[in-house]
């Protein structure tokens, strides 16, 4: 949080690119890509309690909202929301987005 959302976006983008596109181990390169000092990153990863209470609170909060699987995608429609729970095929996302567009017109 202290490094800001742009740094988080760069970090996640690098991790995803390495893992899903390059089939590479998401190593310290991600922190380099995001401009995060390696020693700072290593200290954060080594401290298992850093952020733990906040993470547990967020998990409990989402569980109370009925979220019990990943991904859990909510698409806000004009008249109602659409929820996609768990792994879905692209066709299901497309069908949902078409329904939202139809309601909006």
Provide an overview of this structure.
The chain is mainly alpha-helical and 105 residues long. The protein is 57% helix and 10% strand. Strands 1-2 form a two-stranded antiparallel ribbon. The mean pLDDT is 90.
Question: What's a concise summary of this model?
Answer:
The protein has 105 residues and is mainly α. Helix content is 57%, strand content 10%.
How are the secondary structure elements laid out?
Elements: H1 5-21, H2 29-34, H3 38-46, H4 52-64, E1 72-76, E2 81-85, H5 90-104
Antiparallel strand pairs: 1-2
Instruction: Assign an overall shape.
Output: extended
Helix content: 55-70%
**What low-confidence regions span 5 or more consecutive residues with pLDDT below 50?**
none
Q: Write down the Rg.
A: 18 Å
Output mean pLDDT.
90
Tell me the major beta sheet.
Answer: 2 strands, antiparallel
Q: Helix and strand succession?
A: HHHHEEH
Distance between the termini: 39 Å
Number of helices: 5
Proportion of strand residues: 5-15%
Descriptive keywords:
two-stranded antiparallel sheet, 10% strand, 105 residues, extended, mainly alpha, single chain
